[in-house]
Design brief:
alpha+beta; 4 strands; four-stranded mixed beta sheet; about 120 residues
């Protein structure tokens, strides 16, 4: 079973749903990671902003950061080997590395819509 490690740049969260706009790429990656973890796969994400230690202690990641700077993030390791630099894996790459089918990584859209009414407080 493959161990996938993703070394993210400094950001407030890994899902892409915080801040003024949603980053669909971060949402896709978070969804794929969640799906793999639910299947028992070892997928770990490290955030430079909140978990700097793995960026220092992993020699391959540290060397890339020293050579190229933070622009090389995200860095993806599979079983300790650098597989991708400066970009997130596609669902096809996640599937290849994990042995899971691509369609198992895409979540279905919710079948029910939620109607929420917000009342302002004055």
């Amino acid at each position: 079973m493959a161990k996938i490690e993703i070394f993210d740049p400094a950001m407030c969260c890994a899902t892409g749903v915080c801040g003024p706009s949603v980053d669909p790429e971060l949402t896709r990656v978070a969804s794929a990671v969640f799906s793999l973890q639910q299947k028992g796969m070892e997928v770990i994400r490290y955030n430079l902003g909140s978990e700097p230690e793995p960026f220092v202690t992993n020699q391959k990641v540290n060397d890339l950061l020293m050579e190229k700077g933070p622009e090389c993030l995200p860095i993806v390791l599979v079983n300790g080997e650098v597989m991708k630099v400066a970009d997130y894996p596609t669902n096809e790459e996640f599937a290849k590395w994990s042995g899971v089918k691509v369609d198992e990584l895409a979540h279905e859209k919710p079948k029910k819509k939620l109607n929420i009414t917000l009342n302002s407080i004055n």
